[in-house]
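ugh ok fine here u go
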Amino acid sequence: MKSYKDLSREELLQLHAKLEAEYEDAKGKGLKLDMSRGKPAATQLDVEMDIMDVLTSSSDYNTDAGMDCRNYGIVDGIPEAKKLMAEMMGVSSADNVIVCGNASLAIMYDTVSRSMTHGVLGSTPWCKLDKVKFLCPAPGYDRHFSVTEHFGIEMIIVPMTSQGPDMDMVEKLVSEDVSIKGIWCVPKYSNPQGYSYSDETVKRFAALKPAAEDFRIFWDNAYVIHHLYDDAQDKILDIISECEKAGNPNMVYEFASTSKVSFPGAGIAAIASSKANLDAMRSAMTMQTIGYDKINQLRHVRYFRNLDGMIAHMKKHANIMRPKFEAVLQILDGELGGLEIAQWTTPKGGYFISLEAMDGCAKKIVAKCKEAGVVLTGAGAAFPYGCDPQDSNIRIAPTFPALEELCEAADLFVLCVKLVSTEKLLDSVQTEKCAV
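structure:
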């Protein structure tokens, strides 16, 4: 296709009129689709319904060591659940793992909150400092940014690359500024771009020399086993082991959950870290809870059994998700390829596709889609404070709609990208003409 940037003003006007007419027709279809979050489809939830049959009123509720999961005890997770989550996360020892409730986000929130009120391993509580900052690779996960903003932590954008965050920038900032206390990371199939950190990136993270002794890497390994393909899977190094090798065993907190492996919001979540970090967390947990839901932990252990069981189960999810990702990518390639008005990622896993529109166009594209009945994640949501400096990034979540509805939504989306892009180019031509 001919690049839109090579079109004359007259050609752009003709194209805009055509696209405007198509858009008005699209609005008349009465679409009502919500693609604002990365939610599993109902068909995905159906494949794990038999997890509800694992434990019945006549089941044995004892752990291998004889602990009755129906009663109080074991504040940091049953041993079998620790082992299962360690295998999923790629952590070498279950001793490095605490299993909590249903959401890794809750563990992240508690970890930031505990650092604010009580400090990190004896350091000054963050709430008593004049300034606390976090590095935020962006585009990134909006809920991470919401947590740090909630606590009044200043957020600094670090650009993402296909290999992970800009490590030159990360190394420079953390080594020079003692007020930088952490960095958010989604190291595998990142939200929203689907990038996975290279071995070099992971090693550079592990070897950081932060000015702050209480600096921590918040390593949200949310999509660690969320592959779309059997024969094309990203692999990342174990950050826990790499930090130990680099002499920084306490520098990282790793988080994960089964929220999109088993039921979202009804899975089990875990944190992996050094003994010192986990001991500090256990100490605080004794005031916070008598213990998390051991019955749910036992249910997951009995259902999945081990990592092989989890991988086999995730293939069922992939078989449902893969056609949706491929359908959206086919529409993007077919309708926008060669036009030079957008670029997008082609992830091998995770839950999102990230598109970069022309600067200044993302908000208008999302608004146009909403007006025609398709709700997307708000433009700018993938950046701290909800502000994309270029107003170009749009997160596409293909998983929830049925395939036919998804294709309708993708068709409308590319139409809106084209329409807003022609308006942008026409404005540029008009500005140039006025300047002359």
